[in-house]
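Q: Sequence in, structure out?
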Amino acid sequence: MERVIINKKQTRDTATIPSLGMLAYRIFPDTECINIQLLSGAQEECTIPFKDGEMFSLRDVNLQLDVVD
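A: Exactly. Output:
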């Protein structure tokens, strides 16, 4: 399982997941959700609850959201 580490103070940023490539995210504080979009290859996105430990998958890769200060 891969981990996506998100700084809760940055509402928009990018990250790299070794098995998936680059992704961009945007936090929506009013709805307590985060939208994550893969930027490499065929783009794919998902919107999930913005909470530490949330599990989700993109391109059949299981991911866990880690929220840091």
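The CA atoms of residues 14 and 34 lie 13 Å apart.
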